[in-house]
Hints:
The protein has 106 residues and is mainly alpha-helical. Helix 2 (28-49) runs antiparallel to helix 3 (53-91). The two termini are 34 Å apart. The chain has helices spanning 20-23, 28-49, 53-91. It has 3 helices and no strands. The protein has a domain at 24-91. Keywords: Membrane, Transmembrane, Transmembrane helix.
Amino acid sequence: MKTPNDPVDHARTTRPHAGExxxxxKNMPGLIVIGVSLVLFVSALAAHATNHHSVGIGLGSxxxxxxxxxxxxxxxxxxxxxxxxxxxxxxxxxxxxxxPSRQRSR
Length: 106
């Protein structure tokens, strides 16, 4: 079962990372920053549409910076979760390691 100290669900699913971005609350600042980035991006589009190009460039630049920050945050948190998962598997050598799901070709 997922806990704040171990966000990987080892027992109840064959997809231990399903819902990781919503269950692991340490991801929330990154998701919020990405949300603000999207608002700035839409604002930049509106500024360009109304011929306020200098404002649009500023908002677009801010949007790009926040998107990189939010993406970096999510990447760092995912790596932290992977490290916790690896430590759990090292402590439970008899547990079967679940592989990430992949799309099958038809």
